[in-house]
Amino acid sequence: MLRWLDVLTFARYGNPEPPHRVEKTAAVWAQELSPEQFRVLREQATEPPYRNAYCRLYEPGEYVCAGCGSLLFSAATKYHAISGWPSFTQPAHKNAICYHFDHSHHMQRVEVRCNVCQGHLGHVFPDGPAPGGLRYCINSASLQLVAPTG
Question: How many structural domains compose the chain?
Fold first, then answer.
């Protein structure tokens, strides 16, 4: 289980190695993604709060990166944070996410990206529920819900 100190350590000293990497040109990403997905994943935009696909959806399954299909979060770790964006307590795997300090908009935050394709997902905050205390605040446009099989 990751905690805030782990997040800060990754952001400061280096992220875990991804299982593989996906690298494409901006032109290829623009062809493969919807305009909103491109804006969020590749240009670090933020979608409007409460007006996004997964904010109020609590279906079982797994959330994968809309850019490369890598597993990011389990629906079992999703919770109602009243933030306006889907919120999760933990990533699916320690190396699913990479962390970077973000000082934009006159704030100090930790940006989270897909560790495989470097797509912008959102931010993580230390105000989540116990036991880990993390709140991954994620843009719906960066995710795709995959229903459980079987």
Answer: 1
